[in-house]
Amino acid sequence: MSEALDCIQPGDRAGPYCILRRFPGRSGMAAVFEVNVRQKYRQPGLPHRLALKVAREEYQAALVAEADFLSRFDNPNVVRIFPLPGYHRPVYAAREQFRFGWGWYYAMELLDGGSLERHLTRRSTVTDLFRPTAGEERRLNLLETLGIARQMAAALQHIHERSVINLDVKPGNVLFRRRNFKFLRASVPQVVLCDFGIARDLRYLRAGLLGVATPEYASPEQALESNPHAQPVDARSDIFSLGIVIYEMLAGSLPFDSVGRVVDLAYTPPPIRQLRPSIPPLLEKIVMQALAKEPAYRFRSANEMRAALEQVPTPPDWGTAARRTFAGIALTTALAASGWGIRSRLVLPTPTPTAAPPATVEMMPTATNLPTIVPETRRPTDTVPAGLPTSTPAPTYTPTFTPRPLTPTPTSGG
Asked: Would you list the domain boundaries of the chain?
């Protein structure tokens, strides 16, 4: 099975997509690839990089059912599926000719922020370097555990309200969404529940080849489903699996080390406070109730479990506060340094003192410098028009002169 899917190589085409690389650690019934939407199929507002899940033709029923389940969901904590471009109606699964033969595929959002499984096993602190066992899981702090558990409960609540149960809740199927400016954001990552390959619709009977759940995270009724006297599998099976995941995050180990202890009604896992005394008693009670072997003693719904998790006091996020404070101080220092540099560049050079020029005395106008005003000569015949003033306003300077006497006009015969 897996050998056939290995035939898909980077550069191959699957309908409107171009294969870029394959994600490791997938099952034999299907594989997930990172793809790029081909240029002519790109649509505004939709991402160009997606994740493509490809299954062989004999698993057509499982992949088509999974695509149908994902098309019902609209929640930030559940993986988002995208309709295939090139169709006049929304189509979520299609068939394509690959190198190994015909295969079915669908496209979903690309989640490259890591997984909870990797988060539990990676070494991130100095104290992890002194762990006695190299492969031992590390325990998450209370803040991260509560944040992840609440988001997973919200995802289960959303899918259960749409009559779907996942039946494969485990750290490997809990991915993180990459966030911009992660350094300044909260310490709790954004959780996304994915992989509905063996999910079921509670309104219909199980049909088709749907695969098997991971035994370490299966509920007792799910592990004994082949027994005709076993209890029916419902939404409380996902609650049991969520209880295992929370126990693992807090204790750093699984509550059941074998399937036999899962189905053994007489076996009870050790309380978390026995392994980690700092855990609040209320949180221990919630986890142990979710891990009840009888479904009737568990939470009746994911919504009820989520409400109980909200009652646990949330510790302060000191890590985020410290990072934001450091970033603020660094930004303030950088702005102050840049402002000091700008001011130093704007300082003008000091001019060299020079001898002052001699003062210029402004000369007052004298009589010789005054303009010569020639008085207007009025002839005797000139008359002043009627209605005009006989005098004008005095100017600021009025010259004085002596009028000349009029010369009489000679007459003949005199």
From this structure: 12-110, 114-123+136-331
